[in-house]
Every structure is written in structure tokens, then in C-alpha cells.
Amino acid sequence: MIAIDDAWIARRVVSREEWLAARKAHLRNEKALTRLRDLVAAERRELPWVKLDKTYVFDTLEGKRTLAELFGGNSQLIVHHFMFGPDWEAGCPSCSMEADHAEGAVVHLEHHDVSYVRVSRAPLDRIEAYRRRMGWRARWVSSCGSDFNYDFHVSFTPAQLAEGRVLYNYAWTEGYEELPGLSVFYQDEHGEVYHTYSSYARGNEEVNGAFIYLDITPKGRNETRIMDWVRRHDEYEGMPADGGP
Hints:
Layout: H1 6-12, H2 16-45, E1 50-51, E2 57-60, E3 63-66, E4 76-81, H3 93-110, E5 114-120, H4 124-134, E6 140-142, H5 148-151, H6 158-162, E7 166-168, E8 171-173, E9 181-187, E10 193-200, H7 209-215
């Protein structure tokens, strides 16, 4: 644990009146950020769509299912591209933290015409074992044997990695076997599926409430490098491995 020294605290302590003046000044920026977030969200909803002509098939607990069949009666679908490679023993810790947050949101999404599913290249049996360990309930399917992860630029072939860079987050960057993302799809009344949005890397931060909570504390995220403090929820010191958050 990193402490805040007394000298640092002394420099920060002021009267209630001085604090209120500083807080009101900061509130102006917070309100500007809220308005900008609303503007960005509206702009996002106006982005054009791309009709999917390829059929993607996934391994699910109910058998083989297409992307269209994952909508489950809703017209909108959010896919969490969860980093879990075919040979990995466990899922990515940072993706796991995002999944912890989604667990409580899914019931609200499903009652607002939005389905949610996690997709990974790990085989279904490994996915299920890890899901049970984490105590999660949200639907999770395997894209093993499918082009889905590659087409949405969250998994990369050995040949791509050998080139030293991959196309990720709409730019060429250093390559890794698996990277995180969120993708959104829409299905019309004729069953046609459209890709409406994808975000990657730090673009996914707003769905992680722990970040926002930490951002309002004095120490903030307290990182040496991005997300170096994140652990699976059963791996923090003193936490029992009880299969639940």
C-alpha cells in the first residue's frame, strides 16, 4: 500500500470556504465533460452501419449458433471481445474485471432491447470452467474455428504477429495474440445483421465502474503502467477462491 505523506496532506488542507471555491471551479469542467459525453454519445448513434454478409458460427452450450441467433429476441447485441486464447489456462484479468461489472448490468440491458454476450477463442469447456470459477452468469460463447475475432481485429494470426505490427483500434500498433474490445450489432425485422460500433483499448473504460470510483479518490488509479493493479476478483490478497465476486 502506498501512503500519502503528511507534508503532502498539509499542502492540500484549506478552509471550507477555499475548498468550496475550488470545488465550484472544478464543477465547471465536470459539467463540460458531461455535455461533451452526451455529444459524443449522440454522434456515436449517428454513425453509419455495415451489413454483415459473412455468417459467423459459435460454439455455445445449446450447440452451434450463428451471430444472428445470439440476439435472443432483442434487436441490439453487445459483444465483449474477452481475451482468452485457445491455449490459455484462464481469462485475462482486465477483461475479467470488465466482466464483473457487466454481470450486474445484463438484466437491465436485456429489458432495454439489448442482449450481451462474451466471445473468446478458447474452447467452450475452458470457458465454462473459468466462468464457474468466477461465478458469472452472462452468456459466453467460443469463436474457436471462426474468423470472427480476426475480422473484428481482436485476435491475430502468427503471420500477422511476425510482421511486428497489427491493425488494432483503427491504427497500426504493436501486436499481441489477443486484445480487448467491444462491438455492437443491430438486427432488423428481416433478420439482417449490421455492425454499428466497435471500441478498443481505453475506449472501453467507461463500462468499468471501478475506474470511475478510483478517479474520484485522492490517489486515483495509482498506476505505474495502465491497469498494473488489476487482479481477478479471487486473486486479491485475503480473498477466498469461492467462485464468486
